[in-house]
Specification:
An eight-stranded mixed beta sheet has the order 1-8-7-3-4-5-6-2. The chain has an eight-stranded parallel barrel with strand order 9-10-11-12-13-14-15-16, surrounded by four helices. The protein folds into three domains: 119 residues, 3-Layer(bba) Sandwich (Glucose Oxidase, domain 1); 101 residues, PtsI, HPr-binding domain (Enzyme I, Chain A, domain 2, Orthogonal Bundle), CATH 1.10.274; 304 residues, Alpha-Beta Barrel (TIM Barrel), CATH 3.20.20. It contains 21 helices and 16 strands. Helix 13 links the parallel strand 12 and strand 13. 55% of the residues are buried. With 549 residues, the protein is α/β, with parallel strands linked by helices.
């Protein structure tokens, strides 16, 4: 049987028997309801409320990014527009089950047609629909199997509610046919340290069949040999031993410092990040404060959350990204509801400058929290595309009392203009997830174009080098806070291209720290030159590996 190729998440390797995700519920019948419309609507309302409560409860148990994702799903379940569609179907004689099936499917198709981040949310909406219908039927929602032994979970894709609470004593690895390297499945798998290969396309594996899931090499090995099983076991043990190594500051073999920072989605993950060796925070996402609100939170409530984070990292650098709304994170008080292509519309800094009061309040809260704590606070704007946007944001932030003000480089124009942008900004942080998406015109959440989403692509590497060169020309630091920094060999390439700091999910810190110690700065530059000279992502990674060898 042929091996399966996909996109590996992290560097892990695992082996075990396959167990498939339970089948989805059969579609409801279109038979007319025997109950009154009011009775059907009441049943749906109760089911939706129960599902939203369950999703929120799962989020609270999971914490971190998972909580953000699940709370967003709960909001989706109770979306008034969706419920209007359900009620219209019921008024036409449909049962509650069929009304939910039809209305949610219609809305999902609209999201798919929009593409981008909203297109990816169609899968989340389908999961919500299944959960509501299961509640109406009085049966369990489709979920993770329980074969009674550790297993490799195989699925079309995983709902965030399932990924967030996977039992890591039972789930050895995850393989999905859909999804890209920055889908919710990938993000949550990386955060939880789950070995995963996503976007494999059609899977022909049987329950109980032994496979090796090799995330480092982007492959699922079907029917492995004894030698392959032994090699995988040895690699897994070596990786586990490396994770237990003493925590030291990130550095190359020649002592060149490379600070290793953590990406965090709320203050709740701060303590764990420190335990895993984070030297600070390279990306603190502030969306968690805003996504569950109908209006922007007050300055005082924001300040308290920021103060908690800064107190945990006293004496260390904390880079806070101001609100990055739009695309898959619409907010009623900030973004436009009717944009045809929100990923290319008023998102990030564009939305904030359109509603400057929201930005002013956030910057004020950050300045107040900074004044009350001892961390080294850096603040940056998302989705910067022009020199003018940089100048406007930097001026406002400094007027409001912030000392170190920078930009996210996620748009190719910002990378190409880095020398000019960094004349004004104090630093730049490269968000490789979006930079690759916009460079390659390939939605970062779609499995169908996953082969174009790799941060190893030389086009992306050249833009990263242009940004680092712009920083060097102005004596300004340039870091990477996208998922590329979590790939140990690519981390070496990034340093070789001129990047000064790396920020990643805390679970990736040990692998990256260990890899950096194997190379000098001259090695890193040589490896980077080999990668950037290639013609595609696969060749770039192969060239880097050859340069290491």
């Amino acid at each position: 049987m042929a091996d399966l190729r996909g996109v590996g998440i992290g560097l892990g390797v695992a082996q075990g028997p396959v167990a498939h995700m339970a089948a989805r519920l059969a579609p409801p019948s279109d038979a007319r309801s025997a109950r009154t419309p009011d009775e059907e609507k009441a049943a749906v309302a109760e089911a939706v409320s129960a599902v939203a409560a369950e999703l929120n409860a799962r989020g609270e148990r999971a914490g971190g990014s998972a909580q953000d994702v699940l709370e967003a799903q709960a909001m989706m379940a109770e979306d008034p527009t969706l419920l209007e569609g359900v009620h219209a179907e019921i008024d036409g004689g449909a049962t509650g089950e069929y009304a939910v099936h039809r209305a949610f499917a219609a809305f999902a198709e609209q999201l798919k047609a929009l593409g981008g981040y909203l297109g990816e949310r169609a899968a989340d909406l389908a999961d919500v629909a299944q959960r509501v219908i299961a509640h109406l039927r009085g049966v369990p929602a489709p979920g993770v199997p329980e074969p009674g032994h550790p297993f490799v979970l195989v699925a079309e894709d995983l709902a965030p509610a399932d990924t967030a609470l996977l039992d890591l004593d039972q789930v050895l690895a995850v393989v999905t046919t859909e999804g890209g390297p920055t889908s919710h499945t990938a993000i949550l798998a990386r955060e939880k340290g789950i070995v995963a290969v996503v976007g494999t396309g059609e899977i022909d594996l049987s329950d109980g069949q032994t496979v090796i899931v090799d995330a480092e090499n982007d492959v699922v090995i079907a029917d492995p040999t004894e030698d392959q099983l032994a090699d995988a076991a040895a690699r897994a043990e070596a990786r586990a031993n490396a994770a237990q190594a003493p925590l030291t500051p990130g550095a190359l073999a020649d002592g060149t410092p490379v600070p290793l920072l953590a990406n965090l989605g709320s203050p709740d993950g701060a303590a764990e990040a420190l335990e895993k060796g984070a030297e600070g925070v390279g990306l603190f996402r502030t969306e968690f404060l805003f996504l569950s609100s109908e209006e922007a939170p007050s300055v005082e409530s924001q300040k308290e959350s920021y103060r908690r984070m800064l107190e945990t990292f006293a004496g260390k650098k904390v880079v806070v990204r101001v609100l990055d709304a739009g695309a898959d994170k619409p907010l009623p008080f900030l973004t436009d509801a009717d944009e045809e292509n929100p990923a290319l519309g008023r998102r990030g800094i564009r939305a904030l400058q359109h509603r400057e009061n929201v930005l002013r309040d956030q910057l004020t809260a950050l300045a107040q929290a900074d004044a009350e704590t001892d961390a080294d606070l850096w603040v940056m704007a998302p989705m910067i595309a022009t020199v003018d946007e940089t100048a406007s944001f930097t001026l406002l932030a400094k007027e409001l009392g912030l000392k170190t003000v920078g930009v996210m480089v996620e748009v190719p124009s910002a990378a190409l203009l880095a020398d000019r942008i960094l004349e004004t900004a104090d630093f730049a942080s490269i968000g490789t997830n979006d930079l690759v998406q916009y460079t390659m015109a390939a939605d970062r959440l779609l499995g169908t174009v996953a082969h174009l989403q790799s941060p190893w692509h030389p086009a992306a590497l050249r833009l990263i080098k242009a940004t680092a060169d712009g920083g060097a020309a102005n004596g300004k630091p340039v870091g990477v806070c996208g998922e590329a920094a979590a790939d140990p060999l690519l981390a070496v390439v990034l340093v070789g291209l001129g990047v000064s700091t790396l920020s990643m999910s805390p679970s990736a810190l040990a692998d990256v720290r260990a890899e950096l110690t194997r190379h000098t700065i001259d090695d890193a530059r040589r490896i980077a030159e080999a990668a950037i000279a290639a013609g595609n992502a696969d060749d770039a990674r192969a060239a880097a590996r050859a340069a290491v060898a």
